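Handover notes (outgoing to incoming on-call)

Open items:
1. GNAT family N-acetyltransferase: sequence verified, structure written out, both below. Nothing else pending on this one.
2. Nothing else urgent.
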Amino acid sequence: MVDMKIRTATPADADEMVQARTASWRAAYAGLVDAAVLAGLPEEASERYVRHLAQKRPLELTLVAEKGPYVIGFAMFTWDHDEAAEEDAAPGVPGEVQSIYVHPDHWSRGAGRALMNEGVRWLTEAGLSPVRVWMMEGSEVSGRFYERYGFEPDGARKTAEISGASIPCRRLTLKRDAPAA
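GNAT family N-acetyltransferase structure tokens:
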């Protein structure tokens, strides 16, 4: 994807981030998340993203993948919130891929890998290691992406609440010898 650029997200990107997230959820989680939930994904997420991006917290990075003038995906990287409270976030705490979404029209074209490469590099430089991610059980799309990147299940599990539905999730950890590109 020659004309793709990865850059830090700004509040002006929020609407396109929501569009990428909504399309990605509807394509990747059909059959895992209730169809009514997918159909009515909250558009107020745009306002939430604007507020989040305006805060500029330390040890948090939100990136967008841009193709031409359009945001086609984004990813959020931070410390592992299950391991430390915000006031305790510091080098030595595990890092976390909090979210990564690419519009399905751009899947398998390098945007997800480019976002992940930049985010993992940033987490590593910040001393947030190992790098972890939570994914919905049964999400084949997510599972294939993370496996190809070098993540593997580490045995941790939890339940996420999404619009009143309980969704089982498993945690993956990036292998130390995972490819950087």
